[in-house]
């Protein structure tokens, strides 16, 4: 069976909006609709929020031409870009508040050396870094070296033993864009447990896609959207002065439409819920299948995604 859904994302513009009115989205073949809000979009995909609150990502080429034109319209693009520019507040494991916008997953080396008695971080004098950047460097080095660095003097004393060659630490985490426009690489271990639950789910898939920029961009897009959804919920709860911290952390589900065919005879549309194998990373998927009954639909979905497990099947004339 031809698969024409690949969820390929190249250069993308993240577009997020929590105020969009729900609209009807139609499959490219027609006849199947979904009531949802657009939450984020790229050149090839759109992330939708269903009435149930579930977030799903759908390839644009599986949607109608009218839907594709709607996403590409200047009015929608401008509106969502404005919403996407909002800053967020993230918290480190020890309580430091960081104002910044999550941009992408990434890897980056942290290089530390001494030059004429002064500490140098990635070829920039420590004293020339902005205050927030300095705090983050001190916290990162404290974690990596297992000792507390309170200020530049403490870091300078430690760095005296480095000699002429810099010491390099490979870091894995997310890229944050600050209110100043500067971008900082922040390792996962620096974030609080609550924030990490939102930022880390797509990391395994991203890290295993070293030679696939499109796949990495896909995971970054979904992480950005999950992060914004989490921040919006948290802000709403804080404004309402709710004491509980039972924040709903949405992880985006992949909505696969590639197994849909024109319904003929006694066939129906079935939504088969799949989750990754035990111990393996992956996102839950809802696979839409044209089949005679639920058993056939289940077998077709499992054949298309070997190793996945079924967590639910339902008949759906609408998805």
TrEMBL record:
This is SLA1 homology domain-containing protein. InterPro entries: SHD1. GO terms for molecular function: cytoskeletal protein binding; identical protein binding; protein-macromolecule adaptor activity; ubiquitin binding. It comes from Rubripirellula lacrimiformis. Residues 1-22 form the signal peptide. Keywords: Signal. Residues 21-73 form the SLA1 homology domain.
